[in-house]
Amino acid sequence: MExxxxxxxxxxxxxxxxxxxxxxxxxxxxxxxxxxVGKNINEVERISSEYIGCKDAVGLSCGTAALHLAxxxxxxxxxxxxxxxxxxxxxxxxxxxxxxxxxxxxxxxxDTWNMDPVALEKAFELYPxxxxxxxxxxxxxxxxxxxxxxxxxxxxxxxIEDAA
Length: 164
Prior knowledge:
By secondary structure, the protein is of the alpha/beta class. The protein has two domains: 20-52, no CATH class; 63-162, Aspartate Aminotransferase, domain 2 (3-Layer(aba) Sandwich), CATH 3.40.640.10. The protein is built from six helices and four strands. It has helices at 20-31, 39-52, 63-73, 90-98, 117-126, 145-154; strands at 81-85, 102-106, 132-136, 158-162. Helix 4 links the parallel strand 1 (81-85) and strand 2. The longest helix has 14 residues, at 39-52. It is globular and about 55 Å long.
């Protein structure tokens, strides 16, 4: 069988930039605020904290930085074990490794390709001291969050959700 390349690109997730987004991007270039500071970031942080109902919010440079901050806030340290989705991008797991923790990969389930709640419960039987779970909603398909949240609460574990 001979394979031919696609005549047109097939995007997994194509970017969509239109309307106001282009205005903000253009403004950032024109004012030279091409970082994690500036009036637009300040406004996003203000609106986010008001919406959530917390004192402060912080905009970070990327999702990996946000996950790394979540791991630090969860108290992940060297030698800890962290339960991780097995089907994911490396950025989901890298922050655990940055902190010296050991990722333990939890099998995916058939319906969503996300973390299997049954496998997670079994993992807690094998590793009862795990206190952090990082869950991914793969390709925009939500994981079985209610079940996984209940399992984490039952075992006193913090759930970090990678919903990028």
